[in-house]
Amino acid sequence: MATLPLDILGLAAHRDDAEQTCGGTLLKMAQRGYRTGILDLTQGEMGTRGTADDRAREAAEAARILQASWRAALDIPDGRVENTWDNRLKVARVIRETRPRVLILPYWKGRHPDHYTASILGYEACFLAGLGKLDLGAAPHRPFKIIYATLYYDVRPTFIVDISDQFETRFQSLMAYKSQYQDQAAGSELFPAQAEIRARVEAMARHYGLLAGVTYGEPFLQKEIGLVEDLTLIPVASI
Ligand SMILES: [Zn+2]
User: Residue 118 C-alpha to ligand 1 middle, in angstroms?
Assistant: First the structure.
């Protein structure tokens, strides 16, 4: 595939998770000329609204809006993301095929078991993907950097990506999931109306933007320490 290897891959449990947690960042990187991709572990067959086919079409449209060069969904059962050997191999194969320098994983704690399991599964798959003696049909590869998208969990991020210029487009990518987000009767007890979603998404982006002194932000956490070359270039005002 001409779009491979990727510079940045976002891995998420469900279609629309990447749009919600790191979509602005993926778009920003694509606008800078990097090749970005999204791997969804599941296909959304357990969703209250729409079918897996609806969600596949919507995911493709969302990827187009975010200017992602690559998107795929594995066949791990929706609502049953488990950190098994087979699933680790499936993800490791994708890591080797797409060869990202940076991998975005969900944060490793959360309300939805699929989300935190996807985090551990993704990390362990990266480890496997680098093992030279593991034959998966593509050359070994590990991402240089793994960062965690923390939007779904109340934890202090270690850095924010300024998505002020990407916020509106990122919101449009979420609205591409028409079967999920358009005002309609089916499952209306579960799903807030579009205006409510907009208010919620904007409040979160504002909150994280405020932490970094910008309008809209997306939160991330890295396990490693930060490295600084020039003290005068450290962003975010202290006082
Ligand atoms: Zn999800």
Answer: 10
